[in-house]
Amino acid sequence: MSSIELDSVSKRFGSVEVISELSLTIHSGEFIAFLGPSGCGKSTLLRMIAGLETVNGGEIRIGGERVDHLPPGARGVAMVFQHYALYPHMTVFDNLAFGLKNIGTPHDEIARRIEEAARILEIGHLLQRKPGQLSGGQRQRVAIGRALVKDPKAYLFDEPLSNLDAALRVRTRVELARLHQQTRATTIFVTHDQVEAMTLASRIVVMNARKVEQVGTPMDIYGRPATEFVARFVGSPAMNFLPVTIRDRAGLATAVLGDGSTIDTAVPLDILPTGDLRVGIRAEAIHVRPDGAVPGKVEVVERLGDRTHLHIRLMDGNTLVAEDKGVSQVQPGDTVPLAVEGATAHLFDDAGLAYHARQ
Amino acid sequence: MTDATLSPGKAVAAVKRPTGASIGPRWTNALFIAPYMVFYLALLVYPLFKGIWMSMLESDMFDDTSKFTGLANYYRLFNDKIFIGTIWNTVLFVLMTVPVFVAIGLLLALALNRSDRTSASLRAIFFGTSVLSVTIVTIIWKMMYMPGNGAIASIMRLFGLEPIAFITSSSLALPAIAVTTIWWIIGLPMMLFLAALQQIPGELYEAAALDNASRWRSFWSITLPSIRRTMLVVVIYEIVAQFQLFGQAQLLTQGGPNNASRPIVLFIYEQGFRSWNLGYAAAASEVLFLIMAVAALAQFFASRKRVEG
Amino acid sequence: MAASEHIVGRGIGNKLILLSVVLVAVIWMLPIAWTLLLSLKPNSELMISTASAFHPPYTLKNYTDIFQSSGVFRWLWNSAVVSVGVTAGILILSSLAGYGFARAEFKGRDIIFVLVLLGLAVPEQAVIIARHQMFSDLKMHNTYPAIILPGLSSAFGVFLMTQYFKAIPKDIDEAAMLDNASRFKIFWKVLLPLTVPAQATLGIFSFLGAWNDYLWPLISATKPEMFTITVGMASTQTNFAQSEGLGFLMAQAIFAGLPVFIVYLFFQKYIVRAVAGAAIN
After folding, report:
1. B185, closest residue in chain C (CA to CA)
2. Going by CATH, does the domain composed of A4-233 fall within 3.40.50.620?
3. Hey, are the CB atoms on B1 and A109 less than 8 Å from each other?
4. What is the ipTM of this complex?
5. In which region does residue B286 sit, left (phi positive, over 0), alpha (psi from -120 to 50) or beta (all else)?
6. Using the beta-carbon criterion (under 8 Å), do A52 and C176 form an inter-chain contact?
7. Domain check: are C154 and C171 in the same one?
8. Domain A240-355 maps to which CATH number in 3.30.1490.190, 2.40.50.140, 1.25.40.10, 3.30.420.10?
9. What is the pTM of this model?
10. Are C58 and C39 in contact (CB under 8 A)?
């Protein structure tokens, strides 16, 4: 397995710069996810590593060797495509064998590798079928198998789960995690689904509007989002944002809401910029409690079984989502007192940059 | 996925230096189009320009030489009553056939846009004649038109009427060719319209039926607007195709009587390959090319305006 | 298929329409039926009156005569050679060029493609005099290549195949690139097998077109032994009334029409799809 280094990589489509001077190191054996909404440039970046898009500036190295001038086949990586891209007229066996034949792998070696991959992926009984005769999940396995047999320096996944139905997606997610634990292969996984990124990756690269917002472990991304975009994109329901003014509380910031109620945050005052600020609080940090300091009127109650989401309008007219227990007694129209865990609150400036409590 | 560790493979990439394709422009990629381009340049582009050149030459049959005469051939053409007559005949023929192709083609398509077996067989009948060659079609229709022995003459006699000599009458020769042509290739516009009709979502008609729209109303407000593009394709295609009328006229009427049914292509053919006035024939063919191009372009722009406006 | 055939209350109207179309279809078939009838009558009877076609005796003699005396077989063979040659040539050239225009990048490709598309607008008549001159200069008339080669310059197949290749998802090529396949291998092993339906369509179109082509073979093939069946059948019509016999002529027409008609019956599905495809593009 090999590391992958991107060194101030740029990409233009015509005069539009879609990726500019991006640098990133993916360690050997790491499972990294590129996360972002569609059009953020994450797939383009993956395809540049694969050799399916030209690189307009910078260097890409795989295992220390510079590859950005090499054709896709010579880079030693394998890719699993969103729509699988199996060769429709070839049997599963031939799909797996095609790449190996092209580099002159001996027949018995091809057979051995396919047999092994088929055993791991449990597709041995499908080898003589054509892709058209397979279900979505089976095609997915064959696509992974085609990557597996090549014993590549790195696996590249381009939204591989987006075509599966919900149940299958969850199952395949677990299987991918297990597969990575076994192979310890360098893996890049492109997705727009934050749950996939959180559950699979050891590190996540969050991208938006063609630039990297944050690189970090899943808990970093969730717990200390670098920007408002990351905070809103990761986590469900999305983080609540409320405009506040700041009051000094022994060096820490106390956020004052529009109706005068306060939230005691753990954000140091000295790192905060001047100008308008907003507080960011996740729903799970806002509860209905008799001693709650912030009053609000419940507008919609969403029951999820294990917990309940309450859509609440505050006295100053702002709205937020709070979390209550599964058997919540709250009804739409109720006015409830809300308790906010200020320790996990973040502050955001005008530019969307985040300020957190000290670690 | 069961227990498994993928056993380390032999260094596969080292077996042979990979020669896989890469993205981006490569001049070697042009080799894919090279074989076709040879034929395209040699047998279409070159003769196109050679034809224009030839149209400005006057060839001498006797010593096999030719001299440049500029636009003299064109000048002569436009003073040639027979040639002007062929343009008129061809335009007339287009006017006779194209509206009928559109109207009958669409009617048949509407009637046969069904999934039952009868409709399928009927479609096969109407389209089937299109696969016959022009020479077989004209043999068949000569037997229809023959004044003495023809089928139409026999039927007319049956009703006590005097048989008409269609192909030797100067007013009926061209219409006779038109009827033959429509019989021959009505299947194509029908198929084009059928394809277009099948693109219209069935829900539209169901919604219209729920809205109490009559069959007629559905046709005007759903069917016609949906097939406007196909209508245009059919019209342009048929104009271009019927301007090239040749075989039916040559074989049924030989352009007669008295040039009454002589189309442009027959004129070109006779000047070029019967009288061997190659320059003159080339000039006539350029005129035909120009007329067809103008007709197609006019249609194209007219349609664009309508769609945009 | 049918948009409104199942809507309640339209059954009777639909039936009436269908009935009238059936009537038209019967009239449509009259000319062929008439030809068929005449071909089954002895020539001597037809000399007196074609009305005798409506009653016996009928005979197959006109058809058996074809086997003995007519050039039809030679012409059918010529047509077969020409049509197969044109079809094979068009399929090979169009597939290669279609892949090239759709997938293989090189400088100037898009401009060249536009120029090729412009070629669609050039009618045969605009180039036929010059073509004839070219083949005369090469002393090639009355050969198979002379009849076949001009047909290979048509841009239609290139256009059709380019469209078809463009419609194939690009990630298939990309997967093949990552699998170390060369350009030609991607074309030959990966994409070409996926174009079989388009090949069938184009093949049938080309075959029928070449089989029924009239103007060029008429000009290029002047020796009767090089006639295609289409030109040959034309040559039998020139002295129509005084020919060897009406019945014989009709039998020849039916016989000569049979091959394409059989092709039509076998490949009707593809032909319909081909026409439909052309309409949607």
Report:
1. C28
2. no
3. no
4. 0.88
5. alpha
6. no
7. yes
8. 2.40.50.140
9. 0.87
10. no
